[in-house]
Amino acid sequence: MRKASGLLQRRSAPATRRGSSASVADLAPLPNTEEEIRSIAQILNANFERDVFLGDRASETTVKSTDLSNRKVLVFATHGLLPGDLNGLEEPALALTPSISSGQKEDGLLTMGEILGLQLNADWVVLSACNTGAADGKGVETVSGLGRA
């Protein structure tokens, strides 16, 4: 975060709440997330080919089509978004890599509703993302709803 005019501003989220237009493609890259995920995977002795999804493999399609019911730890290192952060976003979401699979286009957003539809049995789900706390008091229920999902 950076300080501007005495207020903290998120540097990686597009300024859509002021009327600007933004989509998943407008989100700033998060260059350290790959190293973060690889370090966690190494500590947990994860199989990199089977268990680690980076870049194009870190897509909404992959999350929805992978059997996650047998995973004990899930880690997402990405942008956490609140309603209004992107055009048409009406619920909290995690930004993933947009993909086109079997002719079906995904928007790259794993929304709270989609998360609630996943079959999970994990002991830990780690959300390493912006907007996982609402320091300004706005959106607290939204953020906690994403964590509960």
Low-pLDDT sequence parts: 1-11
> What summary fits the major beta sheet?
3 strands, antiparallel
What is the CA-based Rg, rounded?
16 Å
Coarse morphology: globular
Order of the strands making up the biggest sheet = 4-5-8
Portion of residues within helices? 10-25%
Q: In terms of structural class, how would the helical and strand content be classed?
A: alpha+beta
Fraction in beta strands: 15-25%
Number of strand elements: 9
Q: Tally the helices: what do you get? A: 5
Terminal-residue CA separation? 26 Å
What is the count of structural domains? 1
Question: Characteristics of this structure?
Answer:
149 residues; alpha+beta; 3-stranded antiparallel β-sheet; two-stranded antiparallel sheet; 23% helix; globular; disordered N terminus
Q: Mind explaining what this structure looks like?
A:
- The protein is α+β, with helices and mostly antiparallel strands.
- The protein has one domain.
- Helix content is 23%, strand content 20%.
- It has five helices and nine strands.
- The strands form four sheets. It has a three-stranded antiparallel beta sheet. The chain has a two-stranded antiparallel ribbon with strand order 1-2. Strands 3-9 form a two-stranded parallel ribbon.
- A hairpin with a 2-residue loop joins strand 6 and strand 7.
- It is globular, with a radius of gyration of 16 Å.
- The chain starts with a strand and ends with a helix.
- The N terminus is likely disordered.
What does the secondary structure layout of this molecule look like, with pairings?
Blueprint: E1 2-4, E2 7-9, H1 33-43, H2 48-51, H3 60-65, E3 73-78, E4 80-81, E5 93-95, E6 100-101, E7 104-105, E8 109-111, H4 112-116, E9 124-129, H5 140-148
